[in-house]
Specification:
CATH topology of the largest domain: Rossmann fold
Mean pLDDT: 87
CATH class of the largest domain: Alpha Beta
Order of helices and strands: EEHEEHEHEEEEEEE
Distance between the termini: 22 Å
Oligomer: single chain
Low-confidence stretches: 205-220
Number of strands: 12
Radius of gyration: 17 Å
CATH architecture of the largest domain: 3-Layer(aba) Sandwich
Strand content: 35-45%
Length: about 220
Amino acid sequence: MNTCYIVGAGDNRATAFLPDDTDFVIAADGGLAVLKQKHIRVDLVLGDFDSLGYVPDEKNVVLHPVRKDETDLMLACREGLARGYRNFCLYGGLGGARISHTVANLQTLVWLADRGASGTLYGDGCEIMLLRNDCVTFSESNSGYISMFAIGGETVVSIKGLAYELECAVLTDHYPLGVSNAFFGKEATVTVHEGDLLVVVESETKKGDAVPLNPCQTHF
C-alpha cells in the first residue's frame, strides 16, 4: 500500500523510515530540519514556518499564513489525501513543547478515518492508531503495554491474547477501563465491532512484528 509519510515539529527521536518510489514524504514546518538531518528525501514542504524559523528555499514549498484554522500536520494530511493517499504515517506529532498539538493530532486520526483513510502516530517508544470497525493482530514476540480508549462515545471491543481479555465489551469515552493492558507471549488481537478505538502501544513493543492496519515500519 502506498504511504504518505508526514514529519512534524514535535518529538522526532523515533523518526526513521525508508520511503519507496510510490510513497510521498511531506515536511510539515519544522519537520524539514529533521528530514534533512536524517537524509530522508522530501517531496513537499508546507506550513507557516513558525517552528522552522524561516521560509525554506526548496522546489516544492507551500506557504500558509500563521493565522489559520488548521495545524500544519492537518494541512499535510489534506495534501496527502488530495494526492490519492489513504495510508498515513505521522512522525513528530507527539510530545514536544505543546500538548495541545498532541491532542489535535489525535483528533486528526479521527478526521482521516472519516475520509476512508488510516493513520498512525509514531513517537519515542510509542505509537497510536485509530481502529474503526476493524481489527489488528500482534505476534507473540511483542512485549510491553497496550492501552485502548473509546473515542466519540461507546465502542464495542473484543480482546484476545492479552493479559486482560474482553468479549464484545462496551468501552466508553468517560472511563479509562482499557488502560495498561499487556502482552505476555501470545498472539493478540484487538477487534472493534462498533465505534472508534484509540490503540496505544508503548515501550518494549516490537510493532514491526505485528499485522497492523497499514504497512508503516516502526523502529523500537
